[in-house]
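Researcher: Here's my situation. A collaborator sent me these components and asked whether they could plausibly form a single complex. I don't have experimental data yet, so a predicted model of the whole assembly would be a useful starting point for our discussion.
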Amino acid sequence: DAGVIQSPRHEVTEMGQEVTLRCKPISGHDYLFWYRQTMMRGLELLIYFNNNVPIDDSGMPEDRFSAKMPNASFSTLKIQPSEPRDSAVYFCASSFGGRVDEQFFGPGTRLTVL
Amino acid sequence: EDKVVQSPLSLVVHEGDTVTLNCSYEVTNFRSLLWYKQEKKAPTFLFMLTSSGIEKKSGRLSSILDKKELFSILNITATQTGDSAVYLCAVADAGNMLTFGGGTRLMVKP
């Protein structure tokens, strides 16, 4: 079975540009989580969805960040406009409602904003 | 605010050694504690602990939770170079939120 799929794997952009990160969760999983990992702050939860509905976005740093989940097999995290301090690895993870806490992580997108 | 603290920050051992990694936490509405291993890419799930005093074991790795003292340990016996990684501890609350610790970086030398 395919695991969580993320694209792109690497993204280099210039400050002010829009960035869209994509995620396909594991089939059958009804929870989807977006995380950001940096050296300074470690792994932080940004937002999570249950059955395609955003449940908690308290970790989203500011209005420049937005996330959507139009269907059970696709989610996006958008940053507009991007800033150098957004440079990080962004992970998507999914889990099944019966064991919500056991999350399976995608390979991550390494974002560099110049 | 939920908080997870891991120690030591880093550790260097030789193959065959036994290591103990520590995780202490403060969380409102605790539900579970999880251990993940992160090599160069994504964290991979190791254990989920919900009850005090019950050891979870997988090969050379084992973990136990103490809900009274609010900590967990991860033991690795007979370490191998393939165990080199960052080990992350996380706690889950009743709201499905995971809070991660800063990790312990383990290096196993041949």
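Model: Some features of this prediction you could bring to your collaborator: Chain B has a mean pLDDT of 94. Chain B touches chain A through 22 residues (CB under 8 Å).
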